[in-house]
Amino acid sequence: MTRTLEIIPLGGLGEFGMNSMVYRSGDDSIIVDAGMMFPGVEHFGIEVVIPDLSFLDECKRIHGVIVTHGHEDHIGALPYLLARHDLPIHGTPHTLALVRHRLREHALEGVELVPLPESGLLELGPFKIEALAVAHSIPQARLLVIHSPAGVVVHTADFKLDPDPPDGVRLDLARIAQLGRDGVRVLLSDSTNADQPGTTPGERSVAAGLETLIARAEGRVLDTSFSSHITRLRTLAQIARRHGR
Running DSSP on this structure, what letter comes out for residue 20? Predict the structure, then answer.
């Protein structure tokens, strides 16, 4: 068995969107995420921007796709990927429900959707994948620990180090520390705002601010939020109920 590992980004580096990464060891590959990007002003007449998937034609054995969470910049290109390659999709139940809806829109039937194991390892060819829960603005996001023939890769995808998330889902820092002691060959981490000093407040601080604003407001209150941010929507509903809104 070859002990080399190639890490090939198809998109998602230096841009918001199109997150997709290929891990290849010899003839064996896995794909992590297949996202889209919403077009900018320079993409006149274009509705969806997706990664260049032609590289996958060079991959001899693709064992499957793991999706880290259900945001469009991580699952939006799946219909275009599956139109070219018949692959199983692995993810959490919430993520797979969103994937199923997206595939239905593209009339893609019969795709194998496989829930990630709640504990233990998912084995795909020579890769063994451990999925750790992380806090994010969508339920059931996962950090991936990929045990490859060349060593361990930690693929964080999107995450927040929220010390007290409302749903109680936080990263197992003890497990992360243990991985560091055991040895990690590569860390691939989302870096939004990483160059900003200080610490990002947790979700509960947002709830406290909303509570104050809504309690003091004399007229109608309008709030905008991502529809996938279910924790935030639940918080708004609870606050609205407390204040008769």
Answer: E
